[in-house]
Amino acid sequence: xxxxxxxxxxxxLRQFLSQVGLLSEIERGNVVCTQCGQPVTLECFRAxxxxxxxxxxxxxxxxxxxxxxxxxxxxxESDD
Length: 80
Ligand SMILES: [Zn+2]
Hints:
- This protein has helices at about 5-20, 25, 60-65; strands at about 45-50, 55-60.
- The protein is of the alpha+beta class.
- A two-stranded antiparallel sheet has the order 1-2.
- A hairpin with a 2-residue loop joins β1 and β2 (about 55-60).
- It binds zinc ion.
- Zinc ion binds near residues 35, 38, 58 and 59.
């Protein structure tokens, strides 16, 4: 399995996420990307941002790598 390259990074990431209290939440799939709404896993974790006391997590999927600005999806028309 191609794990070697990821090992160190992954370990640091786990420690970091553990410190901010997100590791177990991510492992359970309870954390979604602020931008695309997809579950963020350790594999696709990209960035974390704290804004107005709220934590925003971004994934590294293609659509979210371009520009970390929330976009309105065509399907998302429930309110507003
Ligand atoms: Zn995303």
